[in-house]
Design a protein that fits this description.
412 residues, alpha+beta, Heat Shock Protein 90, 3 domains, five-stranded mixed sheet, two-stranded antiparallel sheet, 13 helices, 7 strands, 68% helix
Amino acid sequence: MIRTVVRELPRAAAYLLSGVLVGAPLLVALLVLGILGLALAPILVGLPLLAVAVLSGIPVGALERRRLALTRTPPPPDPHATPAEPGLAAWARLRLTERATWRELAYTVLLAFALWPLDVIVLFVALVVPGAMIAAPVQLATTSSASGDARIVKLWLIDSYGQALLCTAAGVALLLALLWPLVRYARVRAVLARLLLAPGEAEAERRLGEVTRSRARLVAAFEAERRRIERDLHDGAQQRLVSLSMTLGLARLDAPPHLADRLAAAHREADQVLGELRELIHGIHPQVLVDYGLPDALADAADRSVVPVELDVDLPRFAESVEAAAYFAVREALANIGRHSGARRAWIAGRYTGGRLRVEVRDDGTGGADPARGTGLTGLADRLAVLDGTLSVHSPAGGPTVLSLEIPCPQR
C-alpha cells in the first residue's frame, strides 16, 4: 500500500496543482466576462461576451479530459456531435443546444468557484504544512541570527533546536499520515470530473445511433456505386467491345490473305477481353441478383463454382444491401473452397425464420481455415456487422468447414 501511495503521489500532486493553475485564471475570466456581459447586455454588446462565457466550458472540458490522464483515470470520449453544416453559426447553434455544453459549463463554474480553492487547501494541509515542519531546523538556523526564534507557517514559535527536531519528527509523521488521503482525494476529484464531463447515457445512445445510421448509409452508397460502375461498364465498354469484335469479324471476310491471320488473332483477343469484362461485371454486381433475388443468384454462383455444389435455398426477397452482403459472403466462401480446401463437394443452405436470414456453406475438405489469415472473410464480416449481422467459420483440422452467416432483416 505504501509503495502504491508513493508511486501515485507525484501524479496526484501534479493533477491538483494543475487544477489550481487552471482554476484561478478561469475564475478571473468568468468574473470579467460575466460582469461586463451583464453590464453591457442592454446595448447588446454584452451578448457576445455572455455567449463566450457559456461556451468557455467546451475548451475547459477538453482540457480537463486530458488532465485526467495524470491520475491514470481513463479519459471519457468527446461528447460533442459534429455539425452537419460548415460554418461558425452552425457550430454555435449545435453547441448551444447540446446537453454536454451545459454540463461542461456547470463543471467550469464548479472548478472556478469551488474545486480549485479546495485543491489549494488540500495541498497546503497535506504537503506545505508537513514540509514546513520538516524544514524547521533549517528555518531556525536561517532566522536565529536575527531574532533567535522561528515561526513555523505563522503558527508555532520555535526558539531551540530541540523543539525544531521534534517539529521535524512531527512533520514526517504528519506527511506520512496525509499522503494516502491526498491520493484518495485526487482520485475522487478525477472521478467527479469524469462523471460531469463524460457523455450521458442518452447522448451515448444518440451517438451510437448516428454511427449505426452512418454505417448503413455508407453501405447503401457503396452498393449504389457498385451498380453505377456495373452499369457504366455494361452500357459503355462492353458495347464498344462487342462492336469492335463484330467489326473485326466482318473485316476478316474481305481481308487479303496476308492480313487474315492478324485480323483473326485480333478478333480472338477482342472476344477474350469481352469475356473477361463480362466476368468482371458479373463480379461487381450480378444482374441476376438485382432481377431475381438471392436464391437465383446463389444458384448462379453454385453453377460457376469449380467444386460441385448442392443447393437447398428457400428465401424471399430482401433489401438490396442484405442480398448483396449474403451473396458476396457465399461467393467468397465458394472461392476459398475451390482454392484451399481440397473439397470434392459443397453444400449451400438458406432459410428465413424468425425475422433472420440464415445461410450456411459447408464442404468436405481438409479444414483448418482461419479467417484471420487474409481469406477475405474478415472484410465480409465487417460488412455484415453494419447490418447487425454475424459471420462465423468453424473449420477444425481434417474438416468439415462450415461458414454460417445470419442477418436480422425484414423480407421485401
